[in-house]
Structures are given as C-alpha cells and as structure tokens.
Design a protein that fits this description.
It contains eleven helices and 17 strands. It is α+β, with helices and mostly antiparallel strands. The structure holds zinc ion (ZN) (2 copies). One zinc ion (ZN) binds next to loops.
Length: about 450
C-alpha cells in the first residue's frame, strides 16, 4: 500500500508523548540490550536473510519458497508453524503461558516488475503467475523487510520469554498486492482454528520517509480500495455505417468522462475520494464498430459511507449513460465489484497510543516522524481487525531511505523511486533494526509481565 510519491500515506494528527509510565521495557530488559541484541542478530543472520528474500521474490499466492523459508526460520525459535492457510499463508504460534494473544503480520509477496535498482543483490527471478504467464519478479514494495523483521521479532521474543506471558500469532500473509491474502486466510478459518487475537499489529517500510524513523497514526492509516470492472456492450457494425449499430467505444468514453463528476460534483469537497479508470480495452480495427469495451477502475475512500456513495454512483452513471445511448435493457453496461477489495485501515486510537508510547520509551522520542498525507493507498491488514472480529489494530510505518538521499531529492537531485517502481530500494539495515525493535516493544507492551 503505497501512493505514487513512494510515500506510505499516513494521517498524522499530533503525537502525544506520555510520561514514562508502567513497564520500562517489560521485564526489566533494557532498551540498550534489546537494541544490541537486534544489531548482533542483524550482523549474524538477519542481513543475509534479507538479501536471500530480496534475491528470491515470489508473486502473490505463489510464495511457496518464501513461506517455507519463513516457516523454517520461525520453527528455529520454537514457534509452532502451520502452513497453507489461505493458499500460501503461514501461521506461527508462540505460546508462553496465560495472557492475551497478539497477532503480528508480515506480508510476503513481490510484484511482477523487472528490477533495475542496480543493487548488488538485485532480483533476476521470473515466475509463472496465476494466469499462466511468465513474468519478472521483484520485491518492489519492501515486503522482504517485513518478513525478515518478523523473524527478528520472533527471535527477540523467544529470547525474552521471562519478560512476557501470553501468545504471539505470527502471520506470513500472501497476496497483499492483490489485497486478497488477508481475506483468504480468514476465509480459510484463521480465527476459527487459531483463536481470535486480542490485538493485531503490522508495519510497512516506506521509501519516501527517513530510514528507521517510525510513524504510528492515531486513526486512519489507509483508504479502502475497490476494483470494479465495467463491461460496455454495443452492437457491432461497419465503421462507415454507425447508425446501424451501437458504438461501445463512444459510450465507454462518455462513461469515463461522466465518472469524473462523482468526486468533483457529488462528494463534499472536504471529503476525499478517488475514481480512477486504469484500463480501457475494446475494438479491433479502424473501420469496425465493435460490440464490447472493458473498463477497469480503482475506487478509494476514507470511510464506508463515502465508499458506498462512490460505488453506487458508478453503477448509476454506467447504467444511465447506457440508457441515454439507447441501448436495450439486455445490453446495458454491466458493473462488477471484484473480490480484490479492502475496507479502510483505521488504527484503534487507544492501542496506537500505547504502541507509540512503548516505542518512544524504548527508542527515544526522536524516533517518531511526521508524514504529510499524500494519495490514497490501501492495505488489506483491515481484514484482520474489521468490525465483525472487533480486534483492536495498529499499523505503523518505518522509513527506509537515508535523510541525505531525501534531502538531495528535495533539492532537485535524483528522485526517490516510488514503491512498485523497478528502481525501488530501501536501506535494509536501519529499516529492519527499527522494525524489529518497534514491533518487539509493542508486543512487550501488550504482553509484558506486570509483576516483578
Ligand atoms: Zn505494494
Ligand atoms: Zn506493500
């Protein structure tokens, strides 16, 4: 989930830094020893593990080797791992006595992108996708940072079992890039088989933000996303005799233009929304009026009310333009909402504050940074926390690019490649170290032993 500027889009509404209350770092394990342990692990194994994952990316729902390696690494920390949940997803249970359950999720998939980052460990991988086509594959969104950090977090928690009590549910999620993997894991019985967690946590590395810095938004974290197909049907005829048919290219063009009126004319101007027609396919030849045009849309909103309003308006406009063109009822445009969709990701404010405070107590207040909202990225972490499960969730971000590079870009130097770009890169060391430390501190905050 990343917007066009390569910046994880976050809402920031002011950071309250509370006094040092409660557990210092749970169980008396000092901040410095945690940081040192993570640094040693990075030096010894995590750095190489990241390179391995980066060199061996896999596509959504094809993450077989990634899941196997992740399972192997988690098992080394005494985690009980079940594979094949939601196709290629894995669930690792770290049980450590009575107490709440905290879900920690990392997404595993790469993207069909040919890497041009010129990193020494660039991917040259190719893989056959779900449609049977062979494509290049790259970790162009930084999910390799997430899975490496999940292993690092599991190791720290395993080494600190005296300091906490409860259960950690470690999730290797497939197909975040298709915003389908979280839903498929739940449909495959994730919560029926392993229990409903008391809290859910995740983070995303962000190439547009300073390396190692952390943002924990108090509320809205990511927009909803819906993929819509519109099939515009017509009546084919000779291009020189348009009156003998119904031209779907002409009708589709009118729909594309009319759709732009939803956000500009129907939505409150203070309410964000996006209706993007990302693809239009139709026709065969200059002089043939075809009988079909396909449109592919993405629709974004920041609350359910706006989401429904946009989706309803799209159906109304497609239908209305079809009728205005004189199409018979049986040929009116068909609007289909695809399963690749996700609700908004909204952090539980109280939990986000606990997590933010735990992070600043352990890493200092300077670790926090401010992000200006930009674009309407989406994220399927929402499925783990959405209302029917009532799981309080917090999703934070960790910056991935050096301040020097960010400053140079701001001064007109080389731009920071966006997520999903073939040039995408993050600095793994500060991202992973911060990600592991912040996530470990967050889990300890929720499961730390209160008694001495
Ligand atoms: Zn992505
Ligand atoms: Zn991503």
């Amino acid at each position: 989930m990343i917007d066009a500027r390569g910046q994880l889009r976050l809402r920031w509404v002011g950071v309250l830094v509370m006094g040092v209350v409660g557990l210092a770092v749970a169980g008396g394990v000092g901040a410095q020893s945690l940081e040192a342990a993570i640094a040693a692990d990075y030096e010894r194994e995590l750095g190489d593990l990241f390179v391995h994952f980066h060199e061996n990316p896999e596509l959504s729902f094809r993450e077989e080797r990634t899941a196997a390696r992740l399972a192997e690494e988690l098992r080394k920390s005494g985690v009980e791992v079940t594979t094949g949940i939601g196709r290629t997803g894995i669930v690792g249970m770290m049980r450590n006595g009575p107490g709440p359950t905290v879900l920690v999720r990392a997404d595993m998939d790469g993207l069909p992108v040919a890497e041009q980052s010129e990193l020494s460990y660039s991917s040259t991988a190719r893989q056959v996708d779900l449609s049977g086509k062979e494509v290049p594959v790259m970790h162009a969104c930084g999910h390799d940072v997430h899975i490496t950090s999940l292993v690092g977090t599991a190791r720290r928690l395993a080494a600190m079992k005296d300091s906490w009590s409860g259960t950690v549910m470690l999730i290797g999620q497939p197909a975040e890039e298709r915003i389908s993997g979280a839903r498929e894991m739940l449909e495959d019985g994730l919560y029926d088989r392993f229990g409903v967690p008391d809290y859910a946590l995740a983070f995303h590395v962000s190439a547009g933000d300073p390396a190692g810095k952390i943002n924990v938004p108090p509320g809205l974290m990511a927009s909803s996303s819906d993929s819509i197909d519109i099939t515009v049907r017509g009546v084919g005829t000779h291009g020189a005799a348009p009156h003998k048919g119904k031209d779907p290219v002409y009708i589709a063009a009118q729909i594309v233009v009319a759709l732009q009126g939803i956000v500009s004319r129907e939505l409150n101007p203070l309410e964000p929304g996006v209706v993007t027609v990302g693809a239009i396919h139709g026709g065969f030849k200059h002089n043939i009026i075809s009988d079909k045009v396909e449109l592919q849309l993405t629709v974004r909103a920041n609350n359910e009310e706006t989401r429904e309003k946009l989706l309803t308006a799209i159906e109304r406009i497609a239908d209305g333009v079809g009728r205005a063109a004189g199409l018979p009822d049986v040929l009116l445009p068909r609007v289909v909402r695809l399963s690749e969709s996700t609700p908004t990701t909204i952090n539980n404010t109280a939990l986000a504050e606990r997590v933010r405070n735990a992070i600043t107590r352990g890493m200092g207040e300077d670790i926090l940074y401010v992000v200006k909202p930009s674009g309407m990225g989406a994220e399927d972490f929402a499925y783990f926390v959405q209302t029917e499960h009532s799981v309080p969730g917090t999703y934070f971000s960790v910056g991935g690019t050096s301040q020097a590079d960010l400053d140079a870009a701001a001064d007109g130097g080389p731009p920071i490649p966006s997520h999903h770009s073939p040039f995408f890169r993050v600095e793994p060391e500060p991202s992973i170290k911060s990600g592991v430390q912040a996530m470990t501190l967050a889990v300890l905050e929720l499961l730390g032993r209160q008694d001495p």
